[in-house]
Structures are given as C-alpha cells and as structure tokens.
Amino acid sequence: MPTSTAVPPATAQHPLGVPRPVLLGAAVVGVLALVLAAWFAGVTAPRELSDPGALTRWGVPVGKAVNNAAMAVTIGALIFAAGILPPHAAGTERWHRSARQRAQDAEEGPRPEHPAFGRVMAVAAAAAGVWTVAALAVGVLSYSDLAGIPVSAGGSFTDGLLAYTLDISVGQAWFWVTVIAAVVTTLAIGVRSHTGLFWTGVLAMLGIVPLALIGHAAGGDDHYGAVNSIGLHLLGVVVWVGGLLVLALISDTLVGPNGAQGRGASLRRQGPAPLLHTVVSRYSVLAGLGLVTVALSGVVNASIRMDDPAQLLSPYGTMVLTKAGAVLLLGGIGLLHRRWIIPRLDDDGAAESPPAARRLLWQLIAVEAVVMAAVVGVSAVLARTAPPVPEELAPDATPARILTGYELPPELTGDRWFTMWRWDWLWVAIIAFLAIWYVRAAWQLRRRGDRWPALRALSWLTGLAVLAWATSGAPAVYGMVLFSAHMVGHMVLTMIVPLFLVLGAPITLALRALPARTDGTRGPREWILWTVHSPWGAFITNPIVAGVNFAGSILVFYYTDFFRFSLETHVGHEFMNVHFLLTGFIFATVMVGADPLPSRPPYPLRLVLLLATMVFHAFIGVAMTTSTGLLQASWFGSIGRDWGPDALTDQHIGGGIMWGIGEFPTVLMAVTVAVLWARSDTKTAARLDRRADQDGDAELARWNQMYAAMNHPGADQDPARGDRP
CA 672 → CA 281, 666, 675, distances in Å? Predict the structure, then answer.
C-alpha cells in the first residue's frame, strides 16, 4: 500500500474545493443585500432629532452582520475541530491503540497535524478575532445610536459610554459578547486537545445568550417566548450557516487520501480515508437540525412580533418573508445534498472517485454560501426594524405585567392545572429532540435484531411529557405569582421527572445505538464515554456529592439571592430549571439507575442517603410551613394578586407541598433500592450454588477443614515438619 497519493491538480473538471472568488462574491452579495434592505426599511435615514451621524446609522447594521457571521464561523469551526475532523494526518486516538502501538507512536514522535484540522483552527482563530473587533464596534456604535451622539463627540461621549456599559442591559450584553469573543480568540490560538476545544466551543456558544436577551424588549408580549425563540434561532444559524461557511473554507483540504492533498503525509498503517464523504455526512446531520431549528424558531418569533397576516406586507413582514423564502431554498439544496450527492461520495478520497459528484457538491455549496450571505445581511437590518407589535411597556401596566412580563393569570382552579399553558420554546425544542432521538434509537436497535424494553421507552416518554407540563404548563404559568405553584414545578422537576427519565436508561441506549468512531474524532458516543469516565463525572456521581447537591441546593436556593435571580431574570429562570432537573437526574441515576457509572455505591449507603434526604426535605418543608417571614416579599407580596390565599398562607402551602411531594418519590426510590438489593443477593446466592455444584462445594470443604484444624491444633500437623497446612 503506498504511503501517499498525489491528488490531481485543480481544474474545471476536477475541482479541489470551493474557489476563493466565490467566497468573496458571497461577501459582496451580503453587503448588497444589507444596503438594499436598509434602504427599503429606512433604518439608515437621517433623523430629525438627535442624529448620531452616518457612521453610526450604517455602522450598526454592518457591524451586527459582521458580528453574526464571524460568530457563526467561529462556532462552526470549533464544532468541526471538536467532533468532525480528525486532529492528525493518520492514526486513531490513543485510547483505541494497544500498549505496543502507543510505545511505537512515542518513538516515532508526535503525529503530523491533519491539514483540514490545521486549516479549521486557523479559521477559528481568525474569525474569533474578527468577532471580537465587530462586537466591540457594535457596543460603541449602539451607544451612539441610543444616545443620539456622534462618535466624534469627544469627552462627553466617553463618559456616557462608560455608564452605558455598566448600567444599561444592551451595553452590558455587548460588553460580555466582546469579552467572550476575546477569550475564545486566545483559546483558539493555543488549544488543540479535544477537551479544550469542547469547552472553548461551549464558551463561544455562551455568546449567543446576551444577544438573545437583548433581541426582544422586556415590555413586549411573551418576552420569555421571544427570547427563547431568538436564542434557538441564533443557535441554529451558527450550526447551519457557520458550518457551511467553514466547509467551504476548508473544502480543498478534504480531497485526497486522508485529506493529504498530495503533500506526501505518511498514512502510518492507514489506508486512503474517504474524508470528504465522512465530513460532509457528519455536517449534514448538524445542518438538518440547524435548518429545522431556524425555520421553526423563526415562525415562532414572527408570530410573537406580528399578530395580523396583513402585517406581512409591512417592511418588517416583507423581510421576514424574504428570509423564509431563502430558508426554503437552502433547505431544498440541503435535501439534494442528503439524498443524491452524499451517497455518490462514498469512494471519494481515492484517485478514481467520481469528480462529477464532487464538482456539483462544491457548486451547490457555493450557491448556499451566496444565499446565506444575503440572509445574514437582511437579518442585520431586520434586527433594527421596529416590529408591527409594539414592544414598549404600557404606562398603565399592572404590577404583574411589570414584574413578570405577563398579565396576571385567572384564578388557579382544579381544571386550570391541566388547561393553562404558556409554551417555553427552549424546553419544547429540547423535549421534542430527546423524544425523537430516543424513539429512533430504540427503532434502530430493533431493526438490527436487538431488544429494547418497551417499558423503558414508556418511562422515558412519560418523563418528557411531565417535563413539558412542568416547564410550559400551570406550574410555569402560576409559578411566577404563586409560591405554592412554583414549589409544585420545582418538586416535579427534581423528584418526579428524573425518576421517569432515569428508568428509561438513555445513556445505555445511546451507547448501544450510536456508532463508534476509530478515526481519531469524538462523536456523540465518544463524548458520552468521556463524560462518564472523566474525573468530573466520577466526582458529581459520587454518592455523597450527589446527595449533598440534591438536598443542599434547595436550602441554598431558597434562602439566598438565587431565588430572586430566578424570578427577575430569564437566565436565572432557565438556570433554575436546568439545575434542579440535572441534580435530580444525577441523584436518581446513582440511587436506582441502570446506566453505567464510574462506581456504584453499596446498597446500605444508598438507603442511608435516601433516609437523610427524606429527613432534610421534611426539615425544610416544616420550616416553610411554620415561617412567619415571607420569602421574596417584594415579589410575591407585590404581585397585585386579588384571588387565592394571601402570600404567607400560600408559602405555608408550598412548604407542605415540598414535604409531601418530596417524600413520595424518595420512598419509592428506597423501596426500589431494597428490591434491587434483594435481587442482587439472590443472584449472588444462585451464582455460588452453581459454582458449588460444579466443584463439589470445595469452598465449604476448605472452611470446614480450617475450623477442624482450629478445634484440634495437632490433628493436621505433619510429624516430619511440625507445622499445620
């Protein structure tokens, strides 16, 4: 087998990738689309009062377009580096190789970096640098736009900019985006390990949060729904658009054996790898998820900002329709990739691979890049266009609307526990994804002849249904005005939902259904294994840590400012949901789960921890039911509620709910642990009985012989040796 394979030079018949002029043309199209959209919407026209100048009027939409594009490319490049591209020119990860192979690797020195991996990290560093500069520029120009002061105003501009950055939410958001982008730039230059790239990518994705929070005014209708839909929209864009642009930028490094591109890289016991097909296939899955997320979140966001179909003819609605048409066009191209082109790339990477399919692939990617650039330009102008539904808080707003962002719901009755809904689109997306993935994975196992218990699937889907109710049903609607309803949602999230989800054994299903990789990359299965076996995974699944986190976080949450943070801010509210769900899931997994863990605590310790949890829950619940002080009185005492019990009585009810709902699942887990303990003892006894039948109960005979020797010290002595056996 040859150690290197030359790749034919790029020609019109055998292209190596997307031509650079096409990418430059896409940038030009994006600028033209931005200019036309800005002219159509009138967002860059001079103002009659407090005009900040042409630099600000044009700089804000241009800066936002550059910021969004650079952020998308940065995150897309980090996703490619962490989970799609192999880091080395040949060979597999160290943990897949034998000790002899690892020793040979050490003797041969460090393996050469894969050309595609090196290119994608260079793209990540450069894009992150552009992202940093663009975010800083938008932060400065957004103050100029808000204050109506030109950037050249001098000292007064600087003083106002400082106050804007420290005290105004928009200024704070752009400050944190700039900080995140700067840190990601530094990490992208120096980090090369899988773990480091994973956390760098997570940090980069956190840059989406500030942009989502300022994408919708707090006084607008359904603020939480709008923020979540904007966040999902941005997430879908960075995965889909960013990934495609990265694919275009590294396309020429994906052709040839192992992406060697004729550079003579040693394959070191590896044959030609179909890298182009592998990379495009892996990206195609992410692109499909991103496309669906962008489309559905866009529909949700548009429905919040427009309440009449006639508003589609407004400048805002026209740009929304333009984006929708572009998404449909891109979705059609993506379907063509998935159904026709990618299957024809199965043998790509070899010298005899079909160049026609590869040429059409690059041509379609070039078209997608141009269309996406135009969409980015239009989106930057759309963000500055006033929607048809006003987002300002009304002067006569009620206390409930001022505090929660929603009008006071009607009195909570028995039927409204199940008929009152306000969709939390973030959790709707998470639940839909988890349900579809689980059913698909279980179906894959059955298709290949493996069995997956139906009761596990039923338990998982039931847990997701209850999770949807807790995050979008009555507990979420009334939890902002009633402490008792909030406590129902809390106990369901941390005690009931995790128990159903854990009994579904999702980690075991994922490890059985997801394909394993041996090309040096980490796919979903490898990341799950890394999480389970990492030191951090061992720490958080330690039974003592899991128990303290599960029970102690309740005390910390309700008797510190964390509770206020969850009530006043959207980030705090979602963090509360995630935290209580994860702590409950980890605790239930340690106690009764079937999924793999670094170590399993003994059954007696599990029962002791469950008993301690019951006592702690009872203690906190009794403290709340007998308390004479109101938790977060400035919130629950000022909500303006004219129905139901008073705030303090409602808090006492909430304490009783914590005590009651918290004890039942704990007792159920204790009974389950006792049953598992009994089954374990039964299995152990049966195993010992089988071994006794096979060896004639040799172990019992040895014990009897030892006891006989102890009772008669001289009976088993050897006269010649004077000792006992």
Answer: 43, 10, 5
User: Which pLDDT band, with edges at 50, 70 and 90, does 394 fall under?
Assistant: confident
- Higher pLDDT residue, 29 or 468? 468
Distance from C-alpha of 343 to C-alpha of 237, rounded to nearest angstrom? 25
pLDDT at residue 347 in the model: 43
- Please state, in angstroms and rounded to a whole number, the distance separating the CA atoms of residues 330 and 326: 6
Cα separations (Å) of 306 from 41, 50, 384, 388, 489?
A: 16, 29, 16, 6, 31
In terms of Cα–Cα distance, which of 258, 239, 227 is closest to 115? Answer: 258
In DSSP terms, 113 is beta-bridged to 88
Cα-based torsion angle of the residue sequence 161, 163, 167, 173 in order, rounded to the nearest 10 degrees:
20
Bridge partner list, 350? 348
Q: What is the pLDDT of residues 573-631, one digit of tens each?
A: 999 999 999 999 999 999 888 888 888 888 888 888 888 888 888 888 888 888 888 88
For tokens 């500030």, the residue is: 210
Q: Which of helix, strand or coil describes residue 350?
A: strand
Separation between Cα atoms, residue 154 and residue 333, nearest integer Å: 50
First to last CA, the chain: 63
Written as one string, the DSSP assignment of 454-504 is: HHHHHHHHHHHHHHHHHHHSHHHHHTTT-HHHHHHHHHIIIIIHHHHHHHT
Closest CA to 654 of 630, 687, 681: 630
Instruction: Name residue 88's beta-bridge partners.
Output: 113
pLDDT of residue 187: 95
pLDDT interval class at 225 (50, 70, 90)? confident
pLDDT at 197: 93
d(CA 583, CA 554): 10
Length of the chain: 725
CA pair distance 515, 521, nearest whole angstrom: 12
**Residue 574 structure tokens:** 């979602």
Q: State mean pLDDT over 17-30.
A: 79
Share of the chain above pLDDT 70, in %: 83
Predicted confidence at residue 16, as pLDDT, reads: 56
Q: Which two tokens stand for residue 144?
A: 């100029």
662, 616 contact by CB (below 8 A)? no
CB 238 within 8 A of CB 72: yes
Q: SS3 for 348?
A: strand
SS3 557: helix
8 Å CB contact between 360 and 348: no
What is the rounded distance in angstroms from the CA atom of residue 367 to the CA atom of residue 372? 9
**Of the candidates 30, 123, 29, which has an alpha carbon nearest to the alpha carbon of residue 80?**
123
Q: What is the band of 91 on the pLDDT scale with cuts at 50, 70, 90?
A: very low
Listed by start position, the domains of the chain span: 20-44+54-92+114-262+272-382, 426-690
Q: Are 287 and 279 in contact (CB under 8 A)?
A: no
Closest by CA to 585, choosing from 478, 464, 479, 675, is: 464
- Structure-token pair, residue 357: 């399919």
Distance of CA 620 to the CA centre of its chain: 32
Give pLDDT tens digits for 616-661: 888 888 888 888 888 888 888 888 888 988 989 999 999 888 888 8
Question: Angle CA(662)–CA(666)–CA(667) in degrees, nearest 5?
Answer: 115
DSSP per-residue codes, 418-445: HH-----HHHHHHHHHHHHHHHHHHHHH
Nearest to 285 by CA among 519, 444, 83, 427: 83
Percent of the chain whose pLDDT exceeds 90:
30
Residue where the block lists tokens 């984006």: 323
